[in-house]
Design a protein that fits this description.
Layout: H1 35-42, H2 68-81, H3 83-95, H4 97-100, H5 103-112
Helix pairs in contact: 2-3, 2-5
């Protein structure tokens, strides 16, 4: 409809995190008569939410990635420096034969669990204050 297409069956994962609110960010208070509209529009799983009507599609586009020939050495350094990550990585290799046989999937897993991974990818830009 008018250049938009509707996302269906939107699923979300929630987590509690401490974030920094920056200059230019908005705080929408919910103790007002328009609460139902606010929730329907800002909650991504709302049937006619802004997300479902493509207003936040940029979060679906991963802009950064790794180059295997460059990342391979860095990935090993990260595993050597982080015993917990290395243990999780080795456990996955041991318990998932497809993963163990796929060098690219291994590099990607390390990338996704590193500080180099693009934090904005798949992260909805609207937050709820819980305290």
């Amino acid at each position: 409809y008018e250049g938009h297409y509707l996302h269906y069956n939107t699923e979300v994962e929630t987590s509690t995190q401490e974030i920094k609110i920056r200059k230019g960010d908005y705080l929408v208070k919910t103790n007002q008569s328009g609460l139902r509209y606010i929730m329907e529009m800002l909650e991504p799983s709302g049937v006619d939410s802004f997300f479902n009507w493509n207003y936040f599609d940029t979060i679906l586009q991963q802009k950064e990635h790794f180059s295997p020939y460059v990342w391979e050495d860095r990935a090993q350094e990260l595993l050597d420096a982080d015993p917990e990550m290395k243990e999780a990585f080795e456990d996955l290799k041991e318990n998932d034969t497809r993963f163990a046989q796929n060098w690219y999937a291994q590099l990607e897993w390390i990338y996704e669990h590193s500080n180099n991974y693009e934090k904005a990818y798949l992260r909805y830009p609207i937050f709820r204050i819980t305290n």
